[in-house]
Every structure is written in structure tokens, then in C-alpha cells.
Amino acid sequence: MSGLQPTQLSDKEVDAETADQPEVVKQELAGRSPTQIALDRLKRDKIAIACAVTFIVFVLIAIFAPLLTNLFGVKLNAGDPGTQLDQFNFPLYGPPDHGFTWKAPLGIAPNTANDNLAEWFYGARTSLAVATVATVVSTVIGLLMGLMAGFSRGWGDKLIGFIIDVFLSLPFILVALALAPILVSRFGGSPGQLKFWQFTSLLIVLSLFGWMTLARLVRGEVLSLREREFVQAARVIGVPTRTILFKELLPNLLAPIIVSISLGLPAFVAAEAGLAYLGIGVVRIPSWGQTINKAVDFFNSYPLYLYAPVLGVLLLVVSLNLLGDAVRDAFDPKTRR
């Protein structure tokens, strides 16, 4: 007796069978890329979604700070301080000595008569602008240095490793402290240039001291990827090195790049606030750290002056850190099921 032979289905019959199956089964049969798997995991993470929404709200506040100040009827520079401050340089209306008023929902800053809500809006803009620019620049530098170090052999790798070690040995706070008096002495007679160079120097310092970790991570990944078959095949057929770096290796480094960006943003927000609190960095531009620096002296009599910027920094940094952890877990192959 002859055995049963397996039935051979044609392509049309296979298409007919899958057409009758429900959509869920079709999605299961279709392959998904690692990025799609990571994004699906993020969508199911309620904490990550809440943190992403919080971050988007802060971004909208930073972008539309002028519109929000007009909507609330507040101004960053409230006019002549003498018309809104008493003889002790405290506000004539609003907290701490007067009740709540919509003219100044968070009160008026002592000594300057600036509206605290307007300073909070523009402080969010400064913090996010500094953090975004520093993150982008440091990511680009770290990515390029890591690619060159991992793909090159011999002296090139050693030279880049030496540069990374030099930057890691320099504390960026001391560099920023050393730059501050130099800028003041050089541009002290021109407030406009001083403000520009203080902001620019802060971006340079944060960017130059924020790329080393990503460079080492990318270098380690490239050391493994450069021995893979697709890279060796590209080199054999004569593909240029630049094409191999940016067309073959770079797409495989998407996960560490996204993780680095998500974790770098909160670090730069906290660094900017810390430097402004120390009196360096953005001093003549509204900043949460600068407001905290001015509000410390008035904590006993005017705690709201300090609470508003502190809560802003805390909420933004915590949400970005939690979002960064969720992104790291979603893109980490070791945590995938």
C-alpha cells in the first residue's frame, strides 16, 4: 500500500487561503522589523506614553511661550520695578504678602518685578533649546568618532581612544567655571555680545563633554559588525568606506543612538539648570536654573518663587528619564520576548 503524499499547493491557492484568514492572523504571519517590535512595546507601556505626553507638553510650552504669556496676560519684563515693588523690593500684589491674582498667577519676582509665570515659560524654552542642541551635536560627534574608531584599525583607533580618554579626564564644570570670567572680561562692555557668547559657550561645553559615552558604545558595536558577512562582502566588491559606514553599519546602530538621545536629553536639562544655578552659562536669558539661584534667598518668605522652577525641572527630568528607560528596554534585544 502506497503512503500518502503531501499535498502541494500552488501560489494562487496559498493566496486564496490567506485571504480568507482574519487580519490578526495575517499580521502574525507577516514579519516585523526590530524597530516595529520596539515601537509596539512602547505603545503598550503606559508609563512611557504618559512620559511622552508630558515631554510633548513641555515642548509645546517652549515653542509657544510668547503666545502663552499673551494668553495669560503676563509679561517677562513687567515694566518699571518701582511701580510694582515696595520699599523692600517685594511685589505690591500677589504672593507672598498678597493673595492670588490673575494679573500674576505665580507672583512677581522680588528685585526685578518680572512675572514668574512668564519666566517659567521662557525658562522651559531655554532649557529645552540648550538640551536639544547639545544632544544633537554630541550625538553626531559621538556617532562619527565611534564609527571611525570601530572601523579603522591600528593608529586611528588608538588616536580616537586617546582623545576620548582626554575628554573623560576633564571635568566640564571646571571648564565652564574657567570660561565664565574670560567671557565677562572680554565682552563685559557689550551686553548683547556677552549674552550671545555665554549661550554659545554653554552649548559648546555641553556638546564637547557629552559625546564620549556614545562614541565608546558605537565603537564596540562596529567592532562586532565589521566582521559580519555583509560588511566583508561589501569590502570585497569594492564598496567605498563611506558607503559602508553610512549605508551598511549606521542602520544597525539605530537602537543605541535612540537610547543615547533619550537618556542624554534629561542629563543636559539638569546640567543646564545646575550651571545656571552656579551663575555660569545662560545668565542673561530666562532659565529655570537662574530663577532657582535668585529664589534661594527668598525661600523662607516666598517659597512659591522657588517651587515653580524646581517642579518644572523635576517633572521634565523625571519624565525624560523614565521615557529613556522605556526606550532602552524596548530596543534592547536581551529584553525582547
What labels describe this entry?
337 residues, mainly alpha, 15 helices, disordered N terminus
How would you sum up the major sheet? none
Strands, count: 0
User: Helix coverage percent of residues?
Assistant: 55-70%
Terminus-to-terminus distance: 46 Å
Tell me the radius of gyration.
Answer: 27 Å
- Low-confidence stretches at least 5 residues in length (pLDDT < 50)? 1-9, 11-15
User: Helical segment tally?
Assistant: 15
Q: Mean pLDDT, nearest integer?
A: 80
Q: In one word, what is the shape?
A: elongated
User: What class, by secondary structure content?
Assistant: mainly alpha
SSE run: HHHHHHHHHHHHHHH
How much of the sequence lies in strands comes to: under 5%
How do the helices and strands line up, and which of them pair or pack?
Blueprint: H1 11-20, H2 23-29, H3 34-44, H4 46-63, H5 65-72, H6 116-151, H7 155-169, H8 172-187, H9 191-208, H10 212-225, H11 229-236, H12 241-249, H13 254-277, H14 288-295, H15 304-331
Characterise the protein shown here.
With 337 residues, the protein is mainly alpha-helical. The protein has helices at 11-20, 23-29, 34-44, 46-63, 65-72, 116-151, 155-169, 172-187, 191-208, 212-225, 229-236, 241-249, 254-277, 288-295, 304-331. It is elongated.
